[in-house]
Amino acid sequence: MIFYPPSTSDKTPIEIALQIDSDGMTTASKLYAFLELNPSNFASWCRRNITRNKFATENEDYIVFVVSNENFKLGGRPKTDYKLTSEFAKKLSMTGNTEKHEQARDYFIACEQGLKVATTKLQERDDDIQALAQNVNTLV
Fold this sequence. Notes:
Strand order of the largest sheet: 1-3-2
Structural class: mainly alpha
Number of strands: 3
Order of helices and strands: HEHHEHEHH
Shape: elongated
Helix content: 40-55%
Radius of gyration: 22 Å
Largest sheet: 3 strands, antiparallel
Mean pLDDT: 87
Distance between the termini: 54 Å
Strand content: 5-15%
C-alpha cells in the first residue's frame, strides 16, 4: 500500500501521485513514470492502452500533443505524448500487472470500503434523528 503525507490540497492521494493538474489532467508520460514501466516501451504502451483503447475517445479522454525534446533538436523525432483526464488516467493506473498497478487497485478498493463505512454511519445517524423526531412529535 502507498502511504502519502497529509495534504491540505483538494486532490486525492492518487491524484497527487499521478500529478493531476488544476485542469484535472495529467500526461501519459507522467502516468507511465508512476507505473515504473520500461521507458523504451512508452510508444507501444500508448498505442495499446490509449489510442487503440476501445473505451477511450480522443479529445474526451485524451488529447494528443507533440513534445520537442532534446533528440528532436539533434535531428531525432519529436515525442508524442497525451494529455489524459484524471478519470482515464485512474482507469489506466489499475490495468496492468505491476506492483504500482496493484497499489492503485488497492487504493481504490480502500476508498470503496471507506465509503461503505461512511454510508453505514450516516444511515445510523439518520435513523437516530428519525427516532428523535418521533419522540419530539409524541411530546408535542
